[in-house]
Every structure is written in structure tokens, then in C-alpha cells.
Design goal:
- The chain has 335 residues and is α/β, with parallel strands linked by helices.
- It has 2 domains: 164 residues, Bordetella uptake gene, domain 1 (D-Maltodextrin-Binding Protein, domain 2), CATH 3.40.190; 115 residues, 3-Layer(aba) Sandwich (D-Maltodextrin-Binding Protein, domain 2).
- Strands 2-1-3-10-4 form a 5-stranded mixed sheet, with helices on both faces. The chain has a 5-stranded mixed sheet with strand order 7-6-8-5-9, sandwiched between helices.
- α2 packs across α9, α2 packs antiparallel against α10 and α4 runs parallel beside α11.
- The longest helix is centred in the first third of the chain and has 23 residues.
- The protein is globular.
- It comes from Oscillibacter valericigenes.
Length: 335
């Protein structure tokens, strides 16, 4: 009996010592909801799969850029990066999903300039301020104003003059809340064009509508229309980028033609508001690492004539804010 009492006393003492040691340790081995060590400032992150939400359909340029990054990020971070497409409401459905997600570093948004346009056009009541910006991680190969080859105008100036002479008869297709919508309104506001803006949700739908004669003008990613220009079905009136594109040196920008409408479609990565800054920093560094990989550069060049672009978090916040101000300047015209 005495031996049992001694053993019990010894076990009790050991248990008490373990409790005291755990208290002295300050909980350094405990994890927060995101799985990151609380006193490590998120540096143990990630410890599970990251869900990257793309608010555009599968197979497009945004989806391609997200999936290409995701593929290489897995090697850098050591965890799977799963891409989920949530479409609808001009992209606002997907961005809202991320905005309302837990700020644990395991849900992020891969979007672009349309985040600001969604706010300017009123389909979303928030912009980048509702998120924690990770980085600007890429730039599209550009978009262009495109018409059928037999259209009676060859320049942006001629298109505008024709629309003024034939008010509301020239139909321009626009995806509500997206770049094509914003650009169409800017043409009517800034240049007094008299274009009839009609809804066509996807870039593929806009191409089909132009081919079928249902609309007269589209504003589309160049990758979706180049084959039709080459075949002689379509022609370019101008690119919407701020500068001429290296691979389309003969196509002038709208700005060069005296038309005050331009935008550069850049890709953003954002977290829900409130993510540990250490996680944000680590995620941004991971994107930077991928952006410098030769194989990544080759992949985006082959698919969409893109070249790598990366801005750190501080640069990205300033850039997106400037872009937002540009888009929001036209907000009243969408009411």
C-alpha cells in the first residue's frame, strides 16, 4: 500500500510540473484558427491547403494566370493552392465570398482591375479597401476595340463620328460591371459618342455576337480576337492600354488617337480584412519568387503574350488606390 501511495505522489508531482512548464511556455505551441503559430506571427503558415477564388470562368485569361501561379506556389509554400471559380454579377459574387471569409490566410482572391470597376459601376458597394492587399502579380496582354472587317470605320475617331451621325444605332457589347462596360460608358461621356451599350456577359459571347452581326463593336482581350483578325473577319480600331503593345506594334492606342479612354488590366491578390501581416508578407514573397521563375515567364508568354509583373504590398496598395480613383471618377454615370 505504501508503494502505491509513493507512486501516486510521484505521478501527481510530474503532472503538476508539466502544467507549470506549459504555463511558462506562454502557449507558444498553440495555434490560431488559421493554423499558424500565434507567437510566430504567422510564420508557420501555411499548414493546409489555400483556397484561391477566381471570380471569372474557367479557361479565361484570369483563370489561366491564377492556375499558373497556383501550380508553382505549391512548390514554394509546400501546400496545395486550390483554384475555385465563383462567377456571377460581373465578378462581384466571387469577391464578396472572399470579403466575408475568415481572415486566417487560407482564402484569397485572385482578381484584377474589375474589382474597382465593380465598385464604380455600382454592382458592388466596396472596393480594395475591404481587403488586405497582398500584391499586384501580373498584367494582361491587353484589350482592344474590335469591329467586323467590313465596318465603315477604321479608327476610333471614325467610329465616334459615325455614332454621332447615327445615334444609338451602333451597338457595343459590354459585360455589366466589367472593363468593357466601364470603357463603353467612358467613350460616351468623354468623347460624346452615341453608342448603344448592350449586355453580353463573357468575352466568348461578345465574339459570337460580333461574328453574327448582333453587335457592331466589342472590347475584348486580344487573345480572344486575334485569330479572327488574322482570318480577316475582324479588325482592330485601337488598343485600350496606356502604351502600344510590343506584339501589335501597328495598332495605335486609343489615347494616341485623341480618345480619352485607357486602362491596363492588372491582376491582384487580396486577403479578407484582418489577416496576420506576417502571412501577407510571406504570401507576397511567394508570388515574387514565382514571378522570377523562367518557366513561369515562358508559360504566360506562350499562352497570352504576357511578361511577368510583380509589385510588393506597399507599391500595390498605392497602385490599386490610384486605379480606383480613376475608375470611381465615372461612378455617377452608372447610376
Amino acid at each position: 500500500m505504501k508503494n502505491w501511495k509513493k507512486l501516486f505522489a510521484l505521478l501527481s508531482a510530474i503532472a503538476m510540473m508539466c502544467t507549470l512548464l506549459a504555463g511558462c511556455n506562454g502557449g507558444s505551441d498553440t495555434t490560431d484558427d488559421g493554423g499558424a503559430s500565434t507567437d510566430e506571427g504567422g510564420t508557420d503558415w501555411p499548414t493546409k491547403s489555400i483556397n484561391m477564388i477566381v471570380p471569372m470562368g474557367a479557361g479565361g485569361d484570369t483563370d489561366f494566370n491564377a492556375r499558373t501561379y497556383a501550380m508553382y506556389l505549391e512548390d514554394v509554400l509546400g501546400e496545395t493552392v486550390a483554384v475555385t471559380n465563383i462567377t456571377g454579377n460581373g465578378g462581384a459574387l466571387g469577391s464578396e465570398e472572399v470579403k466575408n471569409a475568415a481572415p486566417d490566410g487560407y482564402t484569397c482572391l485572385f482578381y484584377h482591375t474589375c474589382l474597382n470597376i465593380n465598385q464604380a459601376t455600382g454592382i458592388a458597394d466596396y472596393g480594395s479597401e475591404a481587403f488586405d492587399v497582398v500584391a499586384v502579380v501580373g498584367e494582361s496582354s491587353g484589350e482592344a476595340v474590335v469591329v467586323r472587317a467590313d465596318a465603315p470605320y477604321d479608327t476610333m475617331e471614325e467610329l465616334i463620328e459615325y455614332s454621332q451621325a447615327h445615334p444609338q444605332t451602333v451597338k457595343i457589347a459590354a459585360n455589366t460591371g466589367a472593363t468593357s462596360h466601364w470603357a463603353s460608358v467612358v467613350l460616351n461621356v468623354e468623347e460624346d459618342a452615341q453608342l448603344n451599350i448592350v449586355n453580353a456577359s463573357s468575352s466568348a459571347e461578345r465574339v459570337a455576337s460580333l461574328l453574327g452581326g448582333h453587335v457592331d463593336v466589342i472590347i475584348n482581350p486580344i487573345g480572344t480576337v486575334q485569330d479572327y483578325v488574322t482570318s480577316g473577319d475582324f479588325k482592330y480600331l485601337g488598343v485600350t492600354t496606356s502604351e502600344r503593345l510590343d506584339y501589335l506594334p501597328d495598332v495605335p492606342t486609343c489615347l494616341e488617337q485623341g480618345v480619352n479612354m485607357s486602362y491596363d488590366l492588372t491582376y491582384y491578390v487580396l486577403f479578407p480584412k484582418g489577416v496576420d501581416p506576417a502571412i501577407t508578407e510571406k504570401f507576397a514573397e511567394a508570388f515574387k519568387t514565382v514571378s522570377e521563375m523562367p518557366e513561369y515567364a515562358e508559360a504566360i508568354k506562350t499562352a497570352y503574350n504576357q511578361t511577368p509583373l510583380f509589385m510588393d504590398t506597399e507599391e500595390s496598395i498605392a497602385y490599386i488606390q490610384e486605379e480606383n480613383e480613376k475608375m470611381m471618377a465615372y461612378a455617377d454615370y452608372f447610376k
